[in-house]
Amino acid sequence: MVCIAAFIILAIIGIFVAFISIFKPKVGKRYLKTLKKSWGCVGKRVTLQKCETGFGDDVKNTVLSKLIIRHPKWVKPASIAIEISSILIVLITVWSLVEGVKAGLALYSLGTCNVKHAESCTLGSEVCSIDDNTEAKNPIEYIGLWFSDWGEIFGAIPDKFRDWNTDNFDVVAIEIKNEGKPTAIDFFDPGCIVCKQSFQTQLETGFFENYNVKLVVFPIQDNEGKFKFANSELIARYIYAVNEREQNTTTESIAFKIIKRIYTEKSEDHGAWLDAFNDYYSNEEALGIIKVWLKEFGLDDKAISEISERVTANAIDEIIQKNNDIVTNEVHAKGIPTLIYDGKKHTGRYEAK
User: Fold this and answer.
1) How confident is the model over 219-257, as pLDDT tens digits?
2) Helix (H, G, I), strand (E, B), or coil: what is residue 247?
3) Fewest C-beta atoms under 10 Å: which of 18, 174, 179, 280?
4) What's the rounded Cα separation, in Å, for the pair 337 and 186?
5) If one looks up domain 164-347 in CATH, what number appears?
């Protein structure tokens, strides 16, 4: 085990030695000779052969040589410590390699290297993650959660090879119809800043004119049912309630105007509307503002009252639950926004072609 640990350390040091050897070739040659010797020993160990080179003993003797002279009694404990340290180095290295492979496969299949918290992966697309807050209370649960991550990863790999046909998803959406144009589905959260950036890019590049767009409001919840952003659920309910009442599905519809205002306009007292709803307004204050908007967008008191009653109806609960199931179980999204168009799934902020 000592020779394997030594090889790992030498391999890491080799990165720096390679640079130094540009200026001092003798150092590189001397180091390479030692590295080859360590690799020969590792090769023997891996193939279950006896390490004839004695490289592991050479390493221990080098480390212990001065200790033998000064403190002979410490030699045996130090030798044991070296063995234990070697085992730990090997185990940590193997664990790091496994975790590296896991992160790489997760990035490939799910678009994030962190299955539980997509936002924390700097290598993946910028998203508002759908977090899993399940915490292991003991080693058995930790192992179970670790293997469940692998299950999600391998379960999502086939998605990379499938044809993402928008007709396969029976979503309830705010539809921006453009006859003769290909269909796109956009899953977003009213409180997500990445969704805001994505929406603004879509407006600027004519996305809503080039596609028959289905906007699906998805207020992000964790596995405990807690919403990620303070007023997202309330806004989602009103958007769906208004959308049910409207006949025309265009960028001039009230449902679309609500989304557009939250993502593109500013309040008088708290900056961008998205920030105001997330950080400043209580549920009651947010409710009052939405009702003011509905009146401003042309609805009378009777219509607003009907919509407010509709917001708490079971039908709206069913719409949200249905769309949530599609996002989680069919789209396998780990973060929002997620878009489906041109036969592919796109995770993260929309980027114009």
Assistant:
1) 998 877 788 998 999 999 999 999 988 765 666 789 999
2) coil
3) 179
4) 7
5) 3.40.30.10
